[in-house]
Amino acid sequence: MDADYLPFHPNPSKPAFVPPAGAVDAHCHVFGPADKFPYAPERKYTPCDAPKEKLFELRDYLGFERNVIVQATCHGRDNRALVDALIAAGGKARGVASVGPDISMDELKAMNEAGVRGVRFNFVKRLVDNTPREVFLSIAEKIATLGWHIVVYFEAQDLEGLIPFLKQLPTTIVVDHMGRPDVTKGVDHPDFQRFVDLMADVDTIWTKVTCPERLTVDGPPYDDVVPFGRKLVETFPDRVIWGTDWPHPNMKSHMPDDGKLVDFIPRIAPSAAEQQALLVDNPMRLYWS
Ligand code: 0GY
Questions:
Q1: Does 245 qualify as catalytic in the annotation?
Q2: What's residue 185's pLDDT?
């Protein structure tokens, strides 16, 4: 693991908030173990191993029933650790893979069988080298035939340039981490408003109201991120999902206590109806129907 890499919290607290029955942690990862599933040569960071057993333990401990496991860049386009975890989860996990344009329909169908339901397009420059838009579009056309969706990860300042591309995509789109707003600018800033307007304009765009620990400037308990999550849950209650982002790759400021992250949920989704949509109905519709 990298010298400055922070490992996941060794003993998270038990959350006070009890998720509704059937709750889904819809953004998390598995890393390695490296001796079985080596990290990709082109990776930009080397994490500490975060194997499926630990993820499933955390799922149960936090009061969740299902996971959506997202392929992270440290594993590149080698989805073996992901597929292995999906199979081991026995129907309790779905996946989002990372693939290249040369992927065959047979390979995609095998991943579908294991529980993959989407691909991730990553535009975050510190995590990946640039991929031409035509390459992403050719992948999008292939995966659309399976009814999959596309998860996109970008930084707020890149959204404006990406909008025409996002509008070309033929599937449902799920934007990671609320489009990564700069929370110091406030919810009314044109940059966040641009994202809210886009979701209002394009009803196939969903978002993950995740990662207060990444977006915060003030630190736990992430008061400065609440207005952003609240705005999105309140405005688009049927197009938001939530996840821990365990094991929290590349956190530099601090390592979050996963129990405290769960306690963030009722602050952005105060009503039982919003919690049911965010944690159960929405992710079930997207990943299990
Ligand atoms: C996240 C965020 C990060 C990393 C990755 O694929 C990845 O490597 O997504 C990050 O560094 O912001 O969603 O886990």
A1: yes
A2: 97
